[in-house]
Amino acid sequence: MAGVxxxxxxxxxxxxxxCQPDETLLDVLRDRLGLTGAKEGCGTGDCGACSVILDDRxxxxxxxxxxxxEGRRIETVEGMAxxxxxxxxxxxxLEHAALQCGICTxxxxxxxxxLLAKNPDPTEEEIRFGLAGxxxxxxxxxxxxxxxxxxxxxxxxx
Amino acid sequence: MxxxxxxxxRKFASVGTRPIRPDGVxxxxxxxxxxxxxxxxxxxxxxxxxxxxxxxxxxxxxxxKAEALAGVKAVITAADLPDLTDGDAAMYDxxxxxxxxxxxxxxxHAVAAVAAVDAHTARQALKLIEVDYEVLPHxxxxxxxxxxxxxxxxxxxxxxxxEEKPVKPSNVTKRSxxxxxxxxxxxxxxxxxxxxxFKTEQTHQGYIExxxxxxxxxxxxxxxxxxxxxxxxxxxxxxxxxxxxxxxxLRVTSSEIGGGFGGKTHVWAEPVALALSRKxxxxxxxxxxxxxxxxxxxxxxxxxxxxxxxxxxxxxxTAAEATLRYSSGPYAGAWAEVGAMTAFACYxxxxxxxxxxxxxxxxxxxxxxxAPSAPMAAFAVESAVDELAKELGIDPVEFRIRxxxxxxxxxxxxxxxxxxxxxxxxxxxxxxxxxKAPLKKNQGRGMACGFWFxxxxxxxxxxxxxxxxxxxxxxxxxxxxxxxxSLSLVAAEELGIDYSQVxxxxxxxxxxxxxxxxxxxxxxxxxxxxxxxxxxxxxxxxRERAAQMWDISVDDVAWEQGHAVAKGEKxxxxxxxxxxxxxxxxxxxxxxxxxxxxxxxxxxxxxxxxHICDVEVDPETGATRVIRYTVVQDAGKAVHPTYVEGQYQGxxxxxxxxxxxxxxxxxxxxxxxxxxFLDYRIPVCSDLPMIDTQILxxxxxxHPYGVRGVGETxxxxxxxxxxxxxxxxxxxxxxHIPMSPPRILAAIEAEREG
Lengths: 158, 754
Known about the structure:
Chain A is α+β, with helices and mostly antiparallel strands. Chain A contains 5 helices and 5 strands. Chain A has helices at residues 25-32, 88-95, 105-118, 124-130, 142-157; strands at residues 4-10, 13-19, 51-54, 57-60, 73-75.
């Protein structure tokens, strides 16, 4: 099979790659580019562990083809921190122990970042529905919701 | 030095604080490496071919076309994993589950596997493998499997544990019995008796990370395995045995683990990946799809339970009896046995009897799921207890308090309890504001208790002090949810230094002695015991080195708050030496300073919890919403309270999913119909309220800090607490889990029609 040549932007950097026409963006990120922060929990768009932001829109990268990234802008968890300074969401997830096993954490961080970009002052209910596309099996979501509330508070003050 | 594990009642400096976990930054930046995040040069992609039939004889497997496909480097069947189990029946079952030998025993049973240069080629190759099946009659329901006419899954199984040896084979592998007193006589003294039958459906642990491994077998017979597991030492033993290797030649490294809950305590894909790598001569990466996780890793048992409890008018239980039937998949298990042990463990009973039956069905082999077997037994028992309280006209909390087990009670499964937390959790629940909060229309409140044994087991730990005074702690229990933080706290506590000076890691199988797996809520309990022991050994060396530096007798050197202190008036001018100062001189005083520990962590303290739950049931649709939830549980000592809360909340959330939504749905053809997160729906963020927690600390006398396990008990009460709440809200007793909207509607309608 001939590869598809793709030029795209990932976390602000220009990136070029070849991928197969049937290859997902998640597979490209993980297997071709070594960006393994996005996880495959289901491969069917049900768990949100592979969440990335594609041109300001939250998507499951397992439901996007690698070839579709041509000319787009992709944000992954690897791009959230600035140097050694964590994003407020990352910091609050740590402080609130909003992760146990941590496999869902990159997806939650990306989904929460997208949520707060669109709604900087969400209610608990808006957070709960905003993150309903991401599965966590460890925490019962309590500490995740609190971390996002706290991060929103900090980010408003910033 | 002899290690004294007894509780000492010390005042804590580090233990009980809430620092950020040592593996935290890697996990929020995407740097942490889980099972599927690791690669080796030249690695191949492995894929597994699975049976589409629930029960079928495998007449022949033709792999020639797959082998001929360009890019395919190895194809294996059971013939490539010869039986080396030497009469070990449990290991033979594991082997047969890894690759079916003569029969496919469930939809999803592995029958062959390939390794190819890429995933596309591997998928193509699977389609080219021809399996000639002879489809056999199947049975997937636990009660139907016990019926006389049921298809036999294994005709060499004769029920164990019967008084008379059976003459006919059966799907019941074993009968077990627990209890004491005379239940017949006890029921004779009862004024009220409740007798009910209950069913629970099969659920999956639902960890978000599918099973994943990378196996690399070298031509010299050594091998490496990178894998997400709860117990890399156990995986090494099993893989080595199945592949005919020496354990020491197989180095297993546990990756970060993306959830396990008991489901990553069993090998499935790992021996297959090793066999593929051995045949192909290259590393092989094998990652399950979500569909494979549901169809072919281990869910919990489906159950059918009868309960009978009698009490006098004054609220004293006079007798309790239960018969528990648990599915174990197509292989023998001991799941009903555990259910039978836990069923009445919360209560002080003069007359109690439980009988368990292990039942074979054409479903995946049952695996442990967080306090395995206890939630279903608690659902049945706690539902009946609630109903009996109602009949007696006694408040359900009060009724439980009156009958709760205490220190000195002979438990329903045999041992006599030490200090335990069932009474205190009930009292705390009784006094909790949640209990007094008003309820609205269609809302109901329920509560229930739960018990779990907790385990200890074999544990080995290394504590190394660097020349800069920082401490590396290497443990062998996989960290499933923050134990590196809690164990660093324990090391800091014992050494008297700051948490930030300690870094804990999980060592691989070649770097540390054998450790049992992280199960039975043993991770923090047992590894903290070993860490304390290792730290005490290191302190002994630190004192010796200080004595050497001062040129005094070691007997005159004490260890206080991270410092060697010279004792006695004659040493009054010596002051003290910090751990850091002693470490800096170690090169001149005898070399590296370390503490080692290997022990069997006995004395795991049993754990109890009481949960309170409010639900709202829509009488039109049968949909249920949990609107408030409170967990009260005894932790012994909460080493890192935030992660203890997390365990309580996580267990409750899994219990809520189990109670209301989750179930394996099989078609008449014996195939699993909902092998994905869309149709097997675990709770999402918008389904749940905040989950309130209250940590009680009743010290475990058998641990220096009083620690008990905390991970599992929290999943035991929810099924019953929610069932009691739903029953109160809907006005009808719910007896079948999950209480999905159709089941609730059917129960309401049946009640209406009388």
